[in-house]
Design goal:
Length: about 280
């Protein structure tokens, strides 16, 4: 579906949309790839697509165009748990080699983290920690940010990141309370907001500076496509009592700055013209 983008002009019959960025999604898992084109046509001009394992990292590289889709590569805690003990080292090394070989394209190390819902015994926690720490070290060495998952594990995740002195941290699908969010903010971490409303999340959006916020779809697992970030943008605009256009502008800038993505120059004014054909 051809989509023509007209920059900086008001064109009759063009629906004015605002530019948005999806800080965390899994585009390799979206079966109908036309949904991605549809998201771009809807203004989601930047998407950070995360791999979680060797095959998904490879696929993420294949679909990343460096224009709208940017790869984050890593090994997530579920993959750490599922990898047989004897294969763990080689799995780690294969992924690290893939990342090194594609260093110039990769914008973040992720998805990595700890997930205690999927680690019921000491051995499984230890495997997750081994993988998490190796990839934090890799990010430090390659001067890349980390895109971090936590589930029932946020205190340990933050302790590990602090102990490792990780410098650029993105806590995706933030699960914490206000106190933890404030600590993340103090450390200069970025928090991304998924398209799901909750009273806990609204408090966090109010308390944390917008400079430390990004939006994510976590699609297709949470939102069906990257378009779902629009709801998160609306949620943040409401919490901050600013216009949706302004929220979209700041959140997009935050995301591009954090991942060092420079797709094109910022537009004058918030709106961008799109023609749908
Ligand atoms: Zn994810």
């Amino acid at each position: 579906m051809p989509t023509k983008i007209v920059e900086g002009k008001a064109v009759k019959d063009v629906k004015q949309l605002y530019e948005m960025a999806d800080a965390h999604c899994h585009l390799d898992a979206i079966k109908d790839q036309s949904l991605i084109q549809d998201a771009i046509a809807h203004g989601i001009m930047t998407m950070v697509s995360n791999g979680v394992s060797f095959p998904t990292n490879k696929r993420t590289l294949e679909i990343s165009d460096g224009k709208h889709i940017f790869p984050a590569l890593g090994m997530d805690p579920q993959n750490a748990v599922q990898t047989p003990d004897d294969d763990l080292d080689s799995e780690i090394e294969n992924n690290i080699k893939l990342i090194r070989d594609n260093r110039s394209r990769v914008v973040s190390i992720g998805e990595i983290g700890l997930d205690y819902l999927h680690a019921k015994d000491f051995n499984l926690v230890a495997k997750q920690r081994t993988v998490f720490e190796r990839f934090i070290d890799l990010a430090t060495e390659l001067k890349l940010p980390v895109s971090v998952h936590s589930r029932d594990s946020l205190d340990d995740v933050m302790e590990t990141l602090k102990a490792k002195d990780a410098q650029k941290v993105h806590l995706h699908f933030f699960e914490g309370n206000v106190q933890q969010a404030k600590e993340a903010e103090r450390l200069g971490y970025m928090i991304s907001i998924p398209p799901i409303t909750s009273s806990k999340r609204s408090r966090i959006m109010k308390e944390v500076s917008i400079d430390n916020l990004m939006v994510e779809s976590d699609s297709p697992a949470v939102g069906p496509t990257p378009k779902s970030v629009e709801l998160s943008v609306h949620m943040i605009a409401e919490a901050k009592m600013i216009s949706v256009e302004r929220a979209a502008e700041v959140l997009t800038m935050n995301t591009k700055r954090f991942f060092k993505i420079n797709v094109r120059k910022p537009q004058s004014g918030a709106g961008i013209g799109f023609i749908r054909t």
